[in-house]
Design goal:
The structure holds two protein chains of two kinds.
Chain A: E1 3-5, E2 10-14, E3 19-21, E4 24-26, E5 32-39, E6 46-52, E7 60-61, E8 64-69, E9 74-79, E10 88-96, E11 104-106, E12 110-115
Parallel strand pairs in A: 2-12
Antiparallel strand pairs in A: 1-4, 3-9, 5-6, 5-10, 7-8, 8-9, 10-11, 10-12
Chain B: E1 4-7, E2 10-13, E3 18-25, E4 31-37, E5 44-50, E6 53-57, E7 64-70, E8 73-79, E9 87-94, E10 106-107, E11 111-115
Parallel strand pairs in B: 2-11
Antiparallel strand pairs in B: 1-3, 3-8, 4-5, 4-9, 5-6, 7-8, 9-10, 9-11
Classes of the chains: A mainly beta, B mainly beta.
Chain lengths: 116, 116
Amino acid sequence: AQKITQTQPGMFVQEKEAVTLDCTYDTSDQSYGLFWYKQPSSGEMIFLIYQGSYDEQNATEGRYSLNFQKARKSANLVISASQLGDSAMYFCAMRGGAGGYQKVTFGTGTKLQVIP
Amino acid sequence: DTEVTQTPKHLVMGMTNKKSLKCEQHMGHRAMYWYKQKAKKPPELMFVYSYEKLSINESVPSRFSPECPNSSLLNLHLHALQPEDSALYLCASSGIRAGVGTGELFFGEGSRLTVL
């Protein structure tokens, strides 16, 4: 079964600094997709960034970039120039792999707190 | 504004009640999902519908009964729930197959359920 691991339950970062949130995954399949979602205290799930397993370049979306290291099975999220509004839970997720395309599994999450 | 609409936003029910959660999307997505999320935990997949047919059931107790009456609507019927079923229930939709877009999940704002 596919597995997503986020080893950092909580992280602190100073405002305007960059922060890296770790994510590793386990699958024997060649075709899969990796996502990062942000969940503020309001509860909504906000899509941040996507990386396909065949994408050769790391994905970027504004202040978000995904450091994809396929051989190491890691997909770390980098947030540059942190803002107070970035304080939230962050989930790494994977689509595909052994569960099939329709299955999307989430990691345990990292709670990020941005300090003024 | 989210493109996936869930109602009600909050629901309180007794263990003998029958209630339903509703989800609607008009993005033309043919895959729809129910997730359950307990506090400080990741979303856990419950059901997936593909082309209005149930394609994934993650061994969910029968007191949860999903229904997909058409391509835009997804219901979750609740009956004889237990207090431990209290959680945030998230509906999501996505494209149906690899190679079409990123396959990201579009989430509703969730229905927060309390079982007394």
